[in-house]
């Protein structure tokens, strides 16, 4: 891989988009390498994934404008599909994905962060969908995921104006869950990932699927999705061990004798 770094520590894997001289901009090669990296993740051992960018300036500054500038209509649509296919794979990835946004997250950068389950960012992060100023629309899911994340009105304002927002405003509108100083961002992402990884992996995966699938349908159908995934957890080693452990702790708690104290 030329532009993707992949590292595994225990049950947590980190994917770093490593094209800092271009502010980690997404071209066809980066998308292809990211796609292959996701396919290579060992889901038998990795329980949570962190996505970040190389350097301190940029998470992903967007899609590569140099590559896009000469595209025909058909080529533009194909490039959009390539990005959407990879981002959708990321969004539906079986395990949770945390975006650690370290700097610019513009255009495709904002879009790839929204394909992750959870977004946290550094205090120098900048988000935006500047495509309208370039004569195009967001092409990697921005018109769809931004509205689902921050609400239709705010999404339309950001997209129509092509205005960037800083970390504090991204937190205020719910685009990110937390803001950290630059040097604390990755440790915070790793701590969050570790907390997730300690929970029952089958249950966590089913929770992700229930949320994602349920949001795509009405409540009646969504509840059925939840019921099925809830039922699928039973008879698993995770469920048996988790509940047995709880019952044992509860039994020990009840057996404790509270000393009598005279008033």
Labels describing this entry:
single chain; 263 residues; alpha/beta; six-stranded mixed beta sheet
Explained architecture:
This protein has a 6-stranded mixed sheet with strand order 1-2-3-5-7-10, with helices on both faces. The protein has a 4-stranded mixed sheet with strand order 4-6-8-9. The chain is built from 11 helices and 10 strands. It has 263 residues and is of the alpha/beta class. A hairpin with a 2-residue loop joins strand 1 (4-9) and strand 2. The chain is 50% helix and 16% strand.
Architecture blueprint of SSEs:
Layout (H helix, E strand, L loop, with lengths): L3 E6 L2 E6 L10 H13 L7 E6 L4 E3 L4 H4 L4 H19 L5 E5 L2 E3 L1 H7 L3 E5 L3 E3 L13 H9 L1 H10 L3 E2 H6 L5 E3 L1 H16 L3 H14 L4 H14 L4 H19 L8
Parallel strand pairs: 2-3, 3-5, 4-6, 5-7, 6-8, 7-10
Antiparallel strand pairs: 1-2, 8-9
Helix pairs in contact: 1-3, 3-4, 4-5, 5-6, 9-10
Bin the helical content.
Answer: 40-55%
Shape: globular
Secondary-structure-based class equals alpha/beta
* Assembly context of the chains: single chain
Put simply, the count of helices is 11
Distance between the termini: 72 Å
- Main β-sheet, spatial strand arrangement: 1-2-3-5-7-10
Radius of gyration, taken over Cα atoms and rounded to an integer in Å = 21 Å
Global mean pLDDT = 95
Strand content: 15-25%
Q: How many beta-strand segments? A: 10
| Main sheet properties | 6 strands, mixed
Order of helices and strands: EEHEEHHEEHEEHHEHEHHHH
List unreliable stretches of 5+ residues: none
Briefly, what is this?
The chain has 263 residues and is α/β, with parallel strands linked by helices.
